[in-house]
Amino acid sequence: MGSDSARGGRLRSVDLARAAGISTQQVRNYEEAGVLPPAARTESGYRTFTPRHRAALLLYRCLVPGFGLVAAQRMMRALHEGDVTQVLALVDEGHAAQHQQRCSLRAASEALTAVARQAPEETARPRTTLRIGELAHQLGVRPSALRVWEAAGLLVPRREPDTGYRRFGPAEIRDARLVALLRQSRYPLPQIRPVLDGLRRTGSTEALRAALARREEELTATTRAMLEGAGQLHAYLREYGPGTGPGPGTGA
Known about the structure:
Blueprint: H1 2-6, H2 13-20, H3 24-33, E1 40-41, E2 47-48, H4 51-67, H5 69-80, H6 84-117, H7 120-123, H8 132-139, H9 143-151, E3 158-159, E4 166-167, H10 170-184, H11 189-202, H12 206-240
Antiparallel strand pairs: 1-2, 3-4
Helix pairs in contact: 2-3, 2-4, 4-5, 4-12, 5-6, 6-10, 6-12, 11-12
Pfam family, one: MerR_1
InterPro entries: DNA-bd_dom_put_sf (IPR009061), MerR-type_HTH_dom (IPR000551), MerR_fam (IPR047057)
Protein name: MerR family transcriptional regulator
């Protein structure tokens, strides 16, 4: 803090870089991206920053783990424009998306017990097999999604000898339901493959339950990061929000 006082609260790029553990080039990139308020310039053209710039930088770095790069950048730009309503709306959007993922995860966990316990014969509809359009309609997805899942090795439908049309039997219908549930919970296709392989090989749902548990841990970590980011945002608004002091280029 002594060096800050010696310059009347003025900071250099290197001071911000050291505070955040990043390079001076990243500081310049953040300013150009609108993450930082516009910096004042000396007569020789060098950027000069203030404690507000440092606070904005640390806030952004705290927001990213919970809300992501894009949302955090949008929040910071709205902050510097004085649009607090937009900032809070973005916070709400982040929490709403997180809640939706938790609901999808819970639904996948509950459905797993019911679907995986059923024998293939029990999962079948009155018709023995379904065509791709019929199955897509049941799952609420596009037929193209089923083709992508097939290309990834997640589904192995039979083909009609004469027409070459896909036919999904009871086992494939069960697999498609599980894939749809996991995709709703944002699981990437490469992570679904070993889960389905284990279910087909042993009939056990342990691998899938472990995957769901890992996803829940990830969501919990993200929620904690969102809470920390929201706390830092609240502190920043109290100190530097609209009507609390001079403009961004003039001081804290």
